[in-house]
Design brief:
The protein is α/β, with parallel strands linked by helices and 316 residues long. The chain has one domain: Rossmann fold. Helix content is 51%, strand content 11%. It is built from eleven helices and seven strands. It binds NADP nicotinamide-adenine-dinucleotide phosphate and 2-acetamido-2-deoxy-beta-D-glucopyranose (3 copies).
């Protein structure tokens, strides 16, 4: 009897120590990545990877903020998105504000393989140090079951091409020269929804899980060849994508977000981008655990109290 209690006590102690170590490690790592300015790599370090940065979805939201922040840190910028007049306007802004050279490429990432030849041609001869795979779309105007949106087939194809195909193809275009030079940074903008399935945003969260998984695996493949791959998983950033959502008070501006997220490059291969988003993610996991969201009641709960403040809008 006595010895059984001793064994249990030892097991309890062991578990408590493991938990304590785990929590301490998590807190120290978070502090290292987000709070220690002296740990950060400076602009010269980033610039040393190559003269140019390529940003997809660069005319709005997070992509635009990354483009400006990278230019401010001394890189020339290639902007890629759909609308030529927006591209030209943003390129001029970058040249005016940061004095860097720019180039624009018009492309619609909902397209398939056919769009990448032109992108490849546009990037030829450039020494690309940083690629930001940012373009991405939600496929529904609010949380809904997959069959409840109209034009399902087109929507699925658009979101999969835009969120997944773009990341893989763009990486394949830029990676060879990075490997040759043994230098390069690839940043994939994923989402906080990438770590588990979210009913009513199923295709979006699955596409972001692809981004995360792909980035980690390719990062491991090319780490020894000098290429750094980072997955950034933001929570809510104040952009057009999140305008119809609730939780205004938790938003981070895209400019603040890009600055803080770029400071973590070279320190961690996976990040929420900024400290407040890291904390939000822990809270969501605590209060909305996966088993609950995937249960019958969880889906009802998400439908009633999900992140969108309006459900009146008709499908996009
Ligand atoms: N905002 C957030 O809170 C949040 C949270 C988690 C993850 N994310 C992710 O962060 C990324 C950027 O989001 P955001 O909120 O910044 O988006 P956004 O404000 O909607 O900006 C989208 C940008 O991408 C371009 N774009 C959109 N569709 C395109 C297409 N089919 N082909 C080419 N370019 C296209 C747009 O320019 P044009 O109109 O000129 O094409 C614009 O420059 C996405 O991958 C998103 O999933 C955002
Ligand atoms: C939202 O889209 C409009 C129209 O394209 C643009 O003028 C505006 O700057 C965008 N806002 C953000 C925060 O990107
Ligand atoms: C491009 O953006 C401008 C400015 O936001 C807008 O006026 C124009 O209609 C857009 N063009 C296309 C083809 O969407
Ligand atoms: C992310 O980074 C990896 C590493 O290079 C790259 O292969 C991949 O295509 C990028 N995009 C996604 C969506 O993972």
């Amino acid at each position: 009897m006595e010895s059984e209690w001793d064994a249990l006590r030892a097991l309890g102690m062991f578990t408590a120590v493991c938990l304590l170590l785990w929590v301490t490690w998590g807190l120290s790592y978070t502090a290292y990545v987000h709070l220690l300015p002296q740990a950060r790599r400076g602009a010269p370090w980033l610039r040393a990877h190559g003269a140019w940065a390529v940003v997809t979805g660069a005319t709005g939201g997070i992509g635009r903020a990354y483009a400006h922040e990278l230019a401010r840190r001394g890189l020339n910028i290639v902007l890629i998105s759909r609308n030529l007049s927006k591209l030209e306007h943003e390129a001029k802004e970058i040249e005016r504000l940061h004095g860097r050279v720019t180039r624009v490429i018009q492309a619609d990432f909902t397209g398939g393989l056919e769009i990448y030849e032109a992108i490849k041609a546009g990037l030829k001869d450039l020494e690309i140090g940083v690629l930001v795979n940012n373009v991405g779309m939600l496929y529904v105007p609010h949380m809904m079951k997959i069959l409840d949106c109209d034009n399902v087939a087109k929507r699925l194809s658009d979101v999969i091409n835009c969120n997944m195909m773009s990341v893989a193809q763009m990486t394949a275009i830029v990676l060879p020269q990075m490997v040759t030079r043994r230098k390069g940074v690839i940043i994939n903008i994923s989402s906080v929804l990438d770590r588990r399935p979210y009913p009513l945003l199923s295709v979006y969260s699955a596409s972001k899980a692809f981004v995360r998984s792909f980035s980690q695996a390719v990062g491991a493949e090319y780490f020894s060849q000098g290429v750094i791959v980072q997955t950034v998983s933001p929570s809510i950033v104040d952009t057009n994508m999140t305008r119809p959502m609730k939780f205004q008070q938790f938003r981070v501006s895209p400019e603040d977000f890009a600055r803080q997220a770029l400071d973590t490059v070279g320190l961690t291969s996976q990040t929420f981008g900024c400290l407040s988003h890291a904390i939000q993610s822990v809270l969501v996991d605590l209060f909305l655990p996966s088993w609950f969201c995937l249960s019958r009641w969880g889906v009802k709960f998400l439908f009633l109290f999900g992140v969108y403040s309006t459900k009146s809008e008709k499908a996009l």
